[in-house]
Amino acid sequence: MACCTDRAEAEKTIRSPAVAGSFYNENKKILLKQISEFLSEPCTLYKDSMYEPLVLFAPHAGYEYSGKTAGCAYQALRSTQFDTVILIGPKHSSRIEGAILFGGGNWSSPLGTTETDEDVTKIIADESPEIVYDQAIHDEEHSLETQLPFIQALQPNAQIVPILINDVKFAPILASAIKSAISKSGKKILIIASSDMSHHLHDDITRMRDKITIKAIKSINIRGLQSLIDSGQSELCGAAAVMTALNVLKSMPDSRVTVLRYNTSAESSGDYEKSVGYMGAVGEIARVEGPTKGTSEKKNQLSEEQKNILKIIALKSLHNINKSGDNTEDIDVKDRRLNQHKAVFVTLKDKNGNLRGCIGRILPEEPLWKAVYHMARQAALEDSRFQPVREREIPSLSIEISVLTTPVKVRSHNEIKFPGHGVIVKKYGKSGVYLPQVSEQFATKEEFLDSLCSSKADLDEKCWKDENTEILVFETESF
Predict the structure, then answer these.
(1) Contact (Cβ atoms closer than 8 angstroms) between residue 375 and residue 441
(2) Which fold has domain 301-404?
(3) E strand or H helix at 347, and its extent?
(4) Residues 6+ positions from 298 with CB-CB distance below 8 Å
(5) Does domain 7-286 have CATH number 3.40.830.10?
(6) What is the predicted pLDDT for the residue at 12?
(7) What PROSITE patterns does this protein map onto (predicted)?
(8) 4 pLDDT above the threshold of 60
(9) Tens of pLDDT along 23-63?
(10) What CATH number belongs to 408-478?
């Protein structure tokens, strides 16, 4: 067994990033932009209301090589929010026995800090003596860390359970413990199996071998995959993580695996002699009808109390417009949801309903409450279309706050929902955005897009028909 501590002795700590600046960008804004682009990557179309994700299979190489493929896997999470994400991956630098839990504490990345779920961790640990705690084993390992920014971007309210496992013989034991956690915790749980595929072979051989491996994974053929691994015909650095996930899926009455993207490192590096394979896939189970914990649409919505807090913060910002400096130091917001990074727009209108200012951000750059404060101030003072708001106007202003989902690239204007979607157009360095509620001003989608291109992006009004124009859509929760 690896050296370990029991749960009572597991020191609560914050695990700092070990590979920020090498495997992914350490600059928060650049990293957010990268992830947004990965999540907008054209992939195998994923949409089936009869199934929902239980497992993601995602690579863990440097983002320049595997980021697009990981992004395709994570796109499957857009419509479902999870309470807990169980991260399973290999330890690359040393041999370990059993399955190694992180224990208590949090994990950080350039995007912020994510809590570990100690309740689910304990359930898993209590199921077998082969599952132990050792925080130090996790310190320098990248296989789980590379997943964290994607989780923070798409599942900002989720907690995590990090687990390292190398030997496939322990996969059934860990799978059984995870199934117990799913049934006993009452939480909506996602499993992420972190693994790259064939390593440092000629690209043709990499693709040929990975094709056989992917076939076994798609059919949830555990015995067949084990045989391929034993014979050397299949290479998965995270084989034990993949086998654990497949064992959980196999136990479900109606499950399937859909591959969303496959690529090799040669596509980015140009080195076809030493190629590494990457697969992004989703393991799904039949969707349970009726109200199940964590599946309600209302789970993703802000509560009335949270909305009221944001309204008060926006109003406080307006009352501070004549003060210099940030002036947020005296605002104390402890609500976890309001401290998640979110993109937001703030719209101001006068007593006659005329627009008085509207400014926002497309990408999440700071905690939601702070973004509301800053965007309210900028809408009042920095919208170049209007004179700055005067203090005497504030009592008669209406304030609308719009919290945005992550923008998603679409293949053409035909995929835009009108009304319903907010839209971004980008071409030749120019861009423009309309919030979903702007569609109310137009009779047709064509008029809406014409105006977006010409009035907001300063492009030809038919730019939305041009194949060189990038179109992204998003939704908002406005109040």
Answers:
(1) no
(2) Glycoprotein, Type 4 Pilin (3.30.700)
(3) strand 343-349
(4) none
(5) yes
(6) 58
(7) AMMECR1
(8) no
(9) 999 999 999 999 989 988 877 655 555 788 999 999 999 99
(10) 3.30.1490.150
